[in-house]
Amino acid sequence: MEKAKISVIQLFSLMFIFEMGTAVVTSYGINAKKDVWLAILLGMFVGIVFFFVYYFLFRQYPNLPLTGYTKKIFGKYLGWIIGLLYVLYFLYNAADNIRSFGDLLVSSILPQTPLLAIIILFVLTICYVLYLGIEVVGRTAEVFIVILVLFGITGNFLVLVSGDIDLDKVQPFLENGWTLILTTAFLETSNFPFNQLIVFMTLLPYLNRPRLVKKVWLSALISGGLILSWTASLNIAILGVEEVKKSTFPLLLTVGKINLLEFVQRVDVIVVFTLLIT
């Protein structure tokens, strides 16, 4: 295992940025329609429950990554197979995120650029950063989270003062009952991204203050869940349920509607850079 350490702030930054991922720009949880915000919050609480399972495992094997203690629990051979399945699962999620990023760039600012070229350049960048080591990844996240927060504050401020918000579009509450909300929460929003935080079980042994794992994990999970819930509600309040459902990247359309005094326009680049970071 790499002899390196990451700080509490760096782990929080990595987890928060990971949670935002593609969820912050896509039609995440829209199957719950107007109550998507509630489905996301319920999914977050499911993620909290699963965290305590992860935390128990970490306390039992504090110096091993996820693929290490699968062997301790299930034995050498079955544990190796389970560890391999987790690795493949993580690779699948990474490939899905990279494809979403490429699609966004092609559809927004680089329509004449081949999708394959964008993906290859992105993968090469990822390989280079990972080659430099986990400490570099942590420091990179530490810088990026500041930029991400500034983008978020700017984008939300411009949307709020643009006058396009219609609260009638998010009403009435529980229009379709609890069934749709609970189904979306347990089958969709709880898994992506909250339960996918299990990937950080591979990084916890590198934390320089392991006693703070619980505070860091829960802080990142809850803050990320609240922001995703807010963003989903904002998209619906501006675009409406049907337009959000039809759109691949509703946040791009939401920010695209910003028009202040015919001067501040076309700030879609905020969304593009947000997805680039997350």
Characterise this structure.
The protein has 278 residues and is mainly α. The two termini are 26 Å apart. It has helices at residues 8-20, 36-60, 66-74, 76-108, 115-132, 134-161, 177-194, 213-239, 241-246, 250-256, 269-277. The protein has eleven helices and no strands. The chain is globular. α6 runs antiparallel to α11. The protein has one domain (8-63, 134-277). 69% of the residues lie in helices and 0% in strands.
Walk me through the topology.
Elements: H1 8-20, H2 36-60, H3 66-74, H4 76-108, H5 115-132, H6 134-161, H7 177-194, H8 213-239, H9 241-246, H10 250-256, H11 269-277
Helix pairs in contact: 1-6, 1-8, 2-7, 2-8, 3-4, 4-5, 6-11, 8-10
In short:
With 278 residues, the chain is mostly helical. The chain contains eleven helices and no strands. The radius of gyration is 20 Å and the shape is globular.
Estimated structural class: mainly alpha
Instruction: Tell the overall outline.
Output: globular
| DSSP E strands, number | 0
Strand content: under 5%
The radius of gyration computed from the alpha-carbon positions, rounded to a whole number of angstroms, is 20 Å
Number of helices: 11
Low-confidence stretches: none
Features:
278 residues, mainly alpha, globular
